Amino acid sequence: MSADKAWTWRYERADGSICPDPSLPDLPSGFAVQVEAETWLGDSWKQLLDAGVDAVSLFAYGNLEYGPMSLHPPA
Hints:
alpha+beta; three-stranded antiparallel β-sheet
């Protein structure tokens, strides 16, 4: 992992298994800072959900920062 793309999302299914990278046109490989990663997710969560992603986890330098976090709206 490149130091300039240290923040990454892991895409997960409802059962906790890891999704392969969803096929989105502008799926980034990572982000330079946490706020960029979170802003991108805020703009893209619906597309991820439509692509079959149920939850995400955020990693920094390979370490889990938080997650899994559901992409489904509260019931």
